[in-house]
Amino acid sequence: MANTSDIRKGLCIRYNHDIYKIIEFLHVKPGKGPAFVRTKLKSVTTGKVLDNTFSAGHKIEDVRVETRSYQFLYADGPTYHFMNTDDYNQIALQETALDAPQLLKEGEVVTIMFNTEDSLPLSVDMPASVVLEVTHTEPGVKGNTATNATKPATVETGAIINVPLFINEGDKIKVDTDKGNYMERSKE
């Protein structure tokens, strides 16, 4: 048993007869009244996201997890296929288990969390950032910028990301997988 002081991003807890992964949390200490923790939870079975507030010191039941590295092989509709990088065993997961499936390209190595009780996969953790090639974008026009002007760009996975005007087709960009935002032009 853990309590609210143990809450962190990525922690899996048992709540309302389901297993949830904590996506976001915020410890709040108001000037008047007791402290509490505001959380955003994602169900690992259905993919539904819900907001919940735990009072300070509330007991939560954490789920013991084990992480393994897997390489993304291919997507077959809503099913994503991964291969264990150690023993080459393959597993297939549904799209709801992934946080940012639109940024996942073939060959990318991800971390998959497994429940230690029944060895079922719980969720897929993407790397903090991925490098993707821009496949289509309109050329940037000089003179119509005030500050920080952006334009939409389609990357090799099919996702559309807002990028600065100086990015052209064929450029490789670094994308934040948490928010899906452009970070920088890649030097690769």
Explain what this protein looks like in three dimensions.
This protein is mainly beta and 188 residues long. The model has no long low-confidence stretch (mean pLDDT 83). The strands form three sheets. The protein has a six-stranded antiparallel sheet, with no helix packed on it. It has strands at 2-3, 12-15, 18-28, 36-43, 49-55, 59-62, 65-76, 79-84, 90-94, 109-115, 121-125, 129-137, 150-155, 160-164, 172-176, 181-185.
Question: On the 0-100 scale, what is the average pLDDT?
Answer: 83
Q: Radius of gyration from the CA trace? A: 20 Å
Helical run tally: 0
Distance between the termini: 45 Å
Examine the coordinates and then state which fold CATH places here, giving the name of the CATH topology of the largest domain.
Answer: SH3 type barrels
Question: Uncertain segments of ≥5 residues (pLDDT<50)?
Answer: none
Sheet with most strands: 6 strands, antiparallel
Shape: flat
Annotated CATH architecture of the largest domain: Roll
The tally of beta strands, per DSSP, is 16
Count of discrete structural domains: 3
Strand composition percent: over 45%
Instruction: Using the coordinates above, name the CATH class of the largest domain.
Output: Mainly Beta
SSE layout:
Blueprint: E1 2-3, E2 12-15, E3 18-28, E4 36-43, E5 49-55, E6 59-62, E7 65-76, E8 79-84, E9 90-94, E10 109-115, E11 121-125, E12 129-137, E13 150-155, E14 160-164, E15 172-176, E16 181-185
Antiparallel strand pairs: 1-6, 2-3, 2-6, 3-4, 4-5, 7-8, 7-10, 8-9, 10-11, 12-13, 12-15, 13-14, 15-16
